Amino acid sequence: MAANDLTVIERMKGEGNVEGLVGALRDPDEAIRRAAIEALVTIADPRTPDLVMPLVSDPDLEVRAAALEAGLRARARWTQAQPAPKEPTWWQKLALHTGLFMAGAVAWTLALLFLGLMFSFQLAGVLVLLQAAIALAPIGFLSFLSIKGWNVRFVDKRGDPSTLYKVAVYFMFLFAGFGLLLSCYWTGKSLLRWYVNKQL
Fold first, then answer.
1. What CATH number does the domain located at 3-81 have?
2. pLDDT of 143-183, one tens digit each?
3. What pLDDT is attached to residue 85?
4. Domain extents for the chain?
5. Residue 96 in 3-state DSSP?
């Protein structure tokens, strides 16, 4: 290893030249790779852990040890440096819950309008059953979403979770007047959860 090679590493470290140091990680000289690792860990760059950790499989034992130590140090430093998530303000919480309720209310309004539209047709015989099934399908689907958004777990007398009991209590709420308002909110929660999971 030439002395000027280390001088280049030191200059890149002083300049914060992360790309240049990444290139030095592929140098055939293990001393250069080790020096590049040590230089990277001193630079305040959040990419450092991901850049040096692949070298834990380096053929040279000292490079592997340096990469492992540097990666853990950099990761711990950046984890501690991350600010704690801010607690949402009361109006942000209000806006969120209002939005959830409004989303659910729109869905339930459309389902009830569809229900009324379907039963406005005068059918007879078996077609009445088909008409009822189609008309009630959106109500059943939204009820399913509402139950999923209701973060309560009921248990039976033996202490086991009972989905049937929860469904029964839910429908008791649903037809108790204010239950439809709660169903709108719970439906909105389920819709939000579905959207977030889809984005992840």
1. 1.25.10.10
2. 888 877 776 555 555 555 566 666 767 777 766 667 778 78
3. 65
4. 3-81, 90-199
5. helix
- What is the DSSP code string of 103-167? HHHHHHHHHHHHHHHHTTS---THHHHHHHHHHHHHHHHHHHHHHHH-----B-TTS-B-HHHHH
Structure tokens at 20: 């240049």
Given a contact cutoff of 8 angstroms between Cβ atoms, the answer to whether 97 and 90 are in contact is: no
Alpha carbon 192 to its chain's center: 11
Q: Half-sphere exposure of 87 toward its Cβ, with a 13 Å CA cutoff?
A: 2
On whether the CB atoms of residues 190 and 145 are closer than 8 A, the answer is yes
Q: Kindly calculate the radius of gyration of the chain based on its CA atoms and give it in whole angstroms.
A: 30
Separation of alpha carbons 73 and 125, rounded Å:
75
